Amino acid sequence: MECHEGRTSRKRYGCTPRIPILLLFVLTLLPGVSSAKEKRGIVTVTVDLNASAEAKQVRLWIPYPMSDETQRITDVAIRGNYSSTGVYREDRYGVTILFVEWDAPTSKRTMTYSFRVKRKEISVKEFPGTELPLSREEFSLYLSPTRRGPTDGEVAALAARISGEKSSVREKARAVYDWIVENMHRDPDVKGCGLGEVTALLTSLGGKCADIHSVFVALARAAGVPAREIFGLRLPPGKEGEITGWQHCWAEFYLPGKGWVVVDPADVRKAILTKKISLEEAKPIREYYFGAVDEKRVEFGTGRDLVLTPAQAGEPLNYFMYPYAEADGRPLNEDLYGDNIGYRIHYREM
């Protein structure tokens, strides 16, 4: 067993949300409702790798959440018949990774990874009247295009139309957020959280959370707003449950003088679909998710086109929200989501 506890350098700021109480959904997110403020439990990842018994080297990378102002990760336990394991930090985005290796042929490769999490709601609803200057050099990473998220061509043209005459970072970010909510939709037929192919998404306008937030990030960056996707895992509303496949993505933009501000337009569109409500009826939810996210989620990290640490033999990962494995230098994952490699995730409330 190995136990680790860490703290990221990401800073966030919170305050009391001011939201009209129009829907029961929104009521559960407001101050004064005990279930809205904090969620505590144990997350357990169980792995029984579907790799050939003859494979000489099998390597596994798993997202490893860290503590910060909004979540506290403790009592990390790692067990299994692996040869070695360690926690690493990827250089470019600072993503933390649990790395596990089996260095000899064996009929069984198993491991269990668990941690306690205490997660708080994030809410930033008060913004400075005058913004400080934005250092484009300091935030160049979060203003740059990615392989699937261009910031030129039709993306730049659309961002210019959306932002119009707006000059402040907050106004531009809000304009992009509103465009996403009003023009995109959740497509339940998309596998996993989606691949985030922005150019194709500007035509289809439908996808899941990674798709919708890839569009938000690309448009925000094209408008001059530093932005990034945040990848993580949803926690269930009940006391216990299987959460394999509950990965979730949201986004942040950087507001000078305030810090990183969360948004989740994908959850607005999900509420519209699942609750069968209109855009007008979803207005309180729309207002809530600009500057706030609920406590029923764990953050893993950010970053696109990732070279992991230790480096994988395969091509850079689109994003790192699912376990990834290789056997003798070849990916075990059939696709980004890795449903075939043999892992389960369980949650139990404390």
Task: Write structural notes for this entry.
With 350 residues, the protein is α+β, with helices and mostly antiparallel strands. The protein folds into two domains: 39-120 and 306-349, Immunoglobulin-like, CATH 2.60.40.2250; 122-300, C8orf32 fold, CATH 3.10.620. The protein is 20% helix and 29% strand. The protein contains eight helices and 18 strands. The strands form five sheets. The chain has a five-stranded antiparallel β-sheet. A five-stranded antiparallel β-sheet has the order 4-5-2-16-17, with no helix packed on it. The longest helix has 15 residues, at 169-183. The two termini are 21 Å apart. The relative contact order is 0.21.
Strand content: 25-35%
CATH level-two architecture of the largest domain: Roll
Q: If you compute it from the alpha carbons, what radius of gyration comes out, rounded to the nearest whole angstrom?
A: 20 Å
- Coarse morphology: globular
Could you tell me the number of beta strands? Answer: 18
- The CATH top-level class label of the largest domain: Alpha Beta
Order of strands in the sheet with most strands = 3-6-1-18-11
* Terminal residue distance: 21 Å
Helices and strands, in order, run as: HHEEEEEEEHHEHEHEEEEHHEEEEE
Question: What is the mean pLDDT?
Answer: 91
Tally the helices: 8
What is the number of independent domains?
2
Largest sheet: 5 strands, antiparallel
List low-pLDDT spans. 1-36
Estimated structural class: alpha+beta
What CATH calls the topology of the largest domain is C8orf32 fold
Helix content: 10-25%
